[in-house]
Structures are given as C-alpha cells and as structure tokens.
Amino acid sequence: MNGALLAGLLMTAGAVPAGDMVPKPGDFRFQKIQRAAGEAEWPFIARGGMLGCTKVFGNRTVYFIPDETDMSRAFNLDMNVFAMSIVNLGMNDILAPYDNVEQLVHRIAPFVTMGQRLCDQAPGTFVTGPEL
C-alpha cells in the first residue's frame, strides 16, 4: 500500500496523531556536537555540527547537520543502514570513509542513541553541552 495512503488512513482512524506525521520546525530538538581531539571513531567528515531529533510517523528520527557545509538538507542517521542510504540518496559527503557496514554502524550508533535521547526533551530544546 502506498505510504501516503496508509498514513492518511491511520490519521483518519485516529491511530496516529496528525502532529506525529510530519514535523513542524518547532518540533525539533537540537544538540551541538564536535569532534574531540584524537577521536578515532568520529563518523563524519565535518569536525562538528548539530544533532537533531523529531518524531516522524510516531518514531524518533535523528539527523546530523554539519557545520562546514551549505547543504539545505539534514543527513538522517539510522541503525538500519539500508533505510539510511535510501533517505540520504545523493548525500555522499557527510560520512567519513569506512571499511565495512559493521564499522559504520559502530561509529554512528552512539550518535543515534544520543539523538534519540534528545527526542525525549521538550520540542524546541537546544542543548549546548554534553548533557545527553
């Protein structure tokens, strides 16, 4: 079934609140992150950026927005590497080179976890330190 059709059916049936379908700008939570000196497992090309989280279709969805880019689109971080590659199609200048999928998952897992904890904060929250 078409995803948009399914979403519409779930919304009209009351199974998913409309606000959890497509986030508004105020629904995001952000945290500033930066590569520590000597950090070998940093997964991104950029030295820093913002980690963001919002709920999409009721699920906590994590993004990375690099500081050193003029991109108008955030990079989705997900433990499902196949889904992550589809969502980020054409964005090949965000992740640092990796040898295999296991290494990639090992590198991004802490950021996905941190981003999901960020989603537990109130919408509109901006965390500036390593609180999470």
Spell out the key features of this protein.
single chain; 132 residues; five-stranded mixed sheet; globular
Task: Give the topology.
Elements: H1 3-12, E1 29-34, E2 48-56, E3 59-66, E4 75-77, H2 81-87, H3 101-118, E5 126-127
Parallel strand pairs: 1-5
Antiparallel strand pairs: 1-2, 2-3, 3-4
Short description:
The chain has helices spanning 3-12, 81-87, 101-118; strands at residues 29-34, 48-56, 59-66, 75-77, 126-127. Strands 4-3-2-1-5 form a five-stranded mixed beta sheet, with helices on one face.
- Strand order in the largest sheet: 4-3-2-1-5
The residue ranges in which pLDDT falls below 50 over 5 or more consecutive positions are 1-14
Largest sheet: 5 strands, mixed
Approximate helicity band: 25-40%
Strand content: 15-25%
Task: Write down the Rg.
Answer: 16 Å
Number of strands: 5
Mean pLDDT comes to 83
The H/E string reads: HEEEEHHE
Q: What structural class is derived from the secondary structure elements?
A: alpha+beta
Number of helices: 3
Q: Between the first and last Cα atoms, what is the distance in angstroms? A: 38 Å
Globally, the shape reads globular
